[in-house]
Automatic annotation (TrEMBL):
The keyword Transferase does not apply. Its EC number is 6.3.5.4. Residues 246-553 form the Asparagine synthetase domain. This is asparagine synthase (glutamine-hydrolyzing). Residues 58-166 form the Glutamine amidotransferase type-2 domain. Belongs to the asparagine synthetase family. It is an enzyme of class 6 (ligase).
Length: 654
């Protein structure tokens, strides 16, 4: 992972030397092997390079071809290199050692601003075109890299982190109140539906699936990837051909994700997604060790979750270890950590308030462990639920009923009831209710409205959320198919995952890579007929069939229980509970929080968790308290480091 930064001066303004130095100081805590810099009167570019791939060692980046008038700076791993060799006519003797930045620059020379459409991988890049006097850049389709920027009368500047931009005297660190309003009012784990904005008014970002063109007078975004609009149905002769096509593609994709001279690792739970990724990686490595990192609850945890859930997935993981002897397992519980003690570390890394506190202690812990083992690539299967392991049985059966495909309906539901050991009439009743509810918006239990009413009115946050199809129950969607469509249509769902993965990679030098999120895999899964995903009474049927011989049958055919992570989150926080409550009280008496938060709502919810139970960890009472405290810590941190910020934010309400 490479931390990049740059400044381009307008007119004849000369960039002070200390501007670049201050920006680079923000990268001192990151893991990198080399710093390369271009300094000119009106241009500053710098990369703090972490060598991961064989081609990155000795790479000249930033690179400036003065003859062509093109400069490139990037943080990228390109996966479809073989395809690009052919399309770009790269000579055979050059292919192995050509760098990813060179491939991107050649793609720009050939296709201009259409070049991101031909790239598959994890990337952000910026290209300077001296002849056109423009900057052109792009971020990959799901946002696995970050790139922030600011623009004023003197210069355009960009960086991998917001902190680097905030070192520039001309960049105000005034908070973006619209962003904060969404953070509070949006019940989902996403922070903002506006992906060009950040928590700071003067700092913007390139959204996933977008390119950007910058001139002195104009800033233009363009979405270059529209997955749902571009999908084309795949029609093969039989089920076996679909399985064979997937296995061939997925092996190719996993192989491309393992391109590193360092150690290889993988997140491994007991589920289908991480299991599939790990199995294909183990086969690809052909005896080379693959380190697996698995979260397990703390020893004193008594599983309170229902029978359909499994908080400790170790038995399933151990089945994988029997099947693949070259896996090097690491079972990690991080008993001394919890969401409360992790707060400052995550705020320092993420640089803004966050919502996904449930798993912070083991996510960061795994990055630390992997970094200590000199792991370069850490595989995961985070997007698998929407791609390789898609297949909502009940929603599919409801669609069969709606289409009057009764013979198929009865055959499938009979098999389903046998597999689950559930009475057929109960299954039918559930499906019929689902079909009836499909004509109505199922709002569920409203999420607590703890944003200050005046602040909500001022920012019109609820109107903005409703315009994006989000209500206080989470959304207004009626079935799993609509939810999936929204996952691929609304880019903000995967932006959050990309941000924390990118910034953890900068800090620890371990690159997260998700084959289930690869553009080739996503397009393949979107092209499959729906009956491939639910078949013979099995939900998630396609991946169950595709992993025969890859996964243990205990894991592959498990339909009765599902793993749940973070169920011990509140239990592990109990030793710090009095500190947590004391700090909450301090926060609620602070005018900075009172400006944003309806304090009376928070106090009512806190009453219910004065003596918390382990099974309250996923309750709204705890969730909104944690979101409040995370925002408070962020405001305090800003107040300690910048008088300018507090002076420009009007916390007092008249």
């Amino acid at each position: 992972m490479t931390a990049i930064t740059g400044i381009w001066s307008f007119n004849e303004w000369e960039i002070p030397v200390h501007y670049g130095d201050r920006m680079l100081q923000q990268f001192q805590g990151f893991r990198y092997d080399q710093v390369q810099t271009i300094r000119e009167r009106r241009l500053f570019l710098s990369c703090s390079l972490n060598w991961i791939t064989p081609q990155s060692m000795g790479e000249e980046i930033p690179y400036y071809n003065r003859e062509k008038g093109l400069a490139i700076i990037c943080n990228s791993i390109i996966d479809n290199r073989e395809d690009l060799y052919q399309l770009l006519n790269i000579r055979k003797y050059e292919r192995y050692m050509i760098t990813d930045s060179q491939l991107i620059l050649y793609a720009y020379e050939k296709w201009g601003e259409d070049c991101p459409r031909f790239l598959v991988g994890d990337f952000v890049f910026m290209i300077w075109n001296d002849k056109k006097q423009t900057w052109f850049g792009a971020r990959d389709f799901s946002g696995t890299r970050t790139l922030y920027f600011t623009k004023n009368a003197l210069f355009f500047s960009f960086a991998s982190t917001m902190g680097a931009l905030l070192t520039l005297p001309e960049v105000e660190d005034t908070y973006n109140e619209n962003w904060i309003a969404e953070y509070l009012a949006n019940p989902l784990t996403i922070e903002s539906v506006d992906l060009t904005s950040t928590v700071y008014q003067s700092i913007y970002q390139i959204p996933p699936s977008h390119s950007i063109t910058i001139t002195k007078h104009h800033t233009q975004f363009k979405q270059y990837c529209h997955l749902l609009e571009e999908r084309e149905p795949l029609k093969l002769k039989n089920d076996e051909q679909y399985i064979e096509a997937f296995q061939e593609l997925f092996q190719k994709v996993v192989d491309s994700k393992l391109r590193t001279f360092k150690g290889k690792g993988a997140h491994l739970s007991g589920g289908l997604d991480s299991g599939t990724v790990t199995a294909f990686a183990a086969k690809s490595l052909q005896g080379e060790p693959l380190h697996t990192f698995s979260y397990i609850p703390i020893p004193k945890f008594d599983d309170w979750t229902p029978k359909s859930r499994q908080a400790n997935e170790r038995p399933w993981i151990e089945e994988m270890l029997k099947l693949y002897p070259t896996l090097v397992p690491h079972f990690l519980s991080f008993s001394d950590r919890n969401a409360y003690t992790e707060m400052d570390e995550w705020l320092n890394v993420i640089e803004s308030p966050y919502k996904y506190f449930d798993n912070t202690y083991w996510l960061r812990g795994i990055y630390e462990q992997a970094s200590a083992l000199d792991i370069g690539i850490l595989l995961n299967g985070q997007r698998g639920n929407w791609t390789i392991s898609w297949g909502p049985a009940l929603d599919y059966y409801a669609s069969l009923l709606k289409k009057y495909r009764l013979l198929h309906f009865f055959k499938e539901t009979n098999s389903y009831s046998i597999a689950l050991g559930v009475d057929r009439k109960k299954v039918w009743s559930t499906i019929i209710n689902k079909k009836i509810r499909a004509s109505h918006v199922n709002r569920g239990h409203p999420f607590p409205q703890f944003i200050h009413p005046a602040f909500a009115r001022q920012t019109k946050v609820y109107e903005k959320l409703r315009d994006n199809g989000i209500d206080q129950a989470g959304n207004g969607l009626t079935n799993a198919y609509q939810v999936r469509e929204k996952q691929f249509n609304d880019l903000y769902y995967w932006h959050t995952t990309g941000v924390y993965g990118a910034k953890m990679a900068l800090k620890y030098g371990v690159i997260p890579r998700d084959p289930t999120d690869d553009l080739r895999v996503v397009r393949f899964c979107l092209s499959l007929p729906e009956d491939q995903f639910v078949k013979n009474g099995f939900n998630r049927a396609f991946i169950r069939r595709a992993t025969k011989g890859y996964l243990p049958n205990l894991n592959r055919l498990n339909v009765k229980s599902k793993g749940v992570q973070g169920a011990d989150g509140l239990l592990r926080l109990l030793p710090n509970w009095s500190s947590f409550l004391n700090e909450m009280e301090k926060a609620l008496n602070d005018q900075r929080i009172q400006y944003f938060i309806d304090v009376s709502v928070i106090r009512n919810h806190l009453k219910r968790i004065q003596q918390p139970q382990a099974n309250q960890v996923f309750d709204d009472d705890f969730r909104i308290a944690m979101r409040t405290l995370i925002l408070y810590r962020f405001l305090i941190k800003g107040g300690e480091t910048s008088d300018k910020n507090l002076a420009n934010t009007h916390f007092a309400r008249t």
